[in-house]
Specification:
2 domains; 33% helix; six-stranded mixed sheet; Rossmann fold; binds 2'-monophosphoadenosine-5'-diphosphate; alpha/beta
Amino acid sequence: MKKFLVIGNPIEHSLSPILHNHWIKNNGINAIYKKQKLNEDELEQLILQVKEKKINGINVTVPFKKAIIPFLDKLSTEAESTQSVNTIYLKDNRVIGHNTDIFGFETSIKKSRYNLSNKEVLILGAGGVVPSIIFALNKMKISKIKISNRTKEKAENLKTIFKNIEIIEWGEVPNFDMIINATSIGLKIGDKINLDFSLISKNKFFYDVIYNPRETNFLKTGQSLGNITLNGKLMFIYQALSAFNIWHGFEPDVNENVIKLLD
Ligand code: ATR
């Protein structure tokens, strides 16, 4: 039986096992997907198990997406450019690190049918997922990426990798067509981003990377001000679909049942 894992710390909240095991079962694959909480000093040993074919694939989540890199033999272009790995597999006896968050984000936008070309995007936050979002946005030919983060230094670090971004002071709300919440504000019910959106015009696109809770206060505000909104559920599903495709060699179905699994 093939064995797959998602690693992180904490990891209890991860819905990856539910999603992957659903696809595994529905397609009659002889495999199991589990979650495992780890400490950083256990990463090297774990990657050894991929090399020895005791583990067939790993998803990596917070806080190890960057920390795992030194233990891998090779990175895909996407993982290299973002310095962020969320999917690991063995190919020709080499342990490869790839980033499917980019595909997840890009596909979620495509499914929403929002046309991003020549649009201005404001990203709130500068944490682990943001390099993947910037990489995907750059592929989508948007006209401007602005980033605002409470700790300005982290936004400045991103600018050393992605030269085209513009840094906005935390607390300011510049003009934008699309705004993305990539902070962790909203994970807890009642969390509120301390920014005033009341002066922006309607028909903007409010996107929250968070999908649990389903509708954060950020999305509620966006909606009540007359904007389009989308949470991070499709991004999550499609990053998983891309990892599944790498490991099992085909794309699993994304249907109502799959979407309901994550409610
Ligand atoms: P990490 O930064 O370890 O990658 P993350 O969950 O990916 O963790 O990112 C958390 C993001 O939410 C960061 O951008 C963080 O801002 P800081 O860089 O200033 O820490 C942001 N964030 C979390 N709580 C916040 C708050 N109360 N106000 C503003 N930003 C907050």
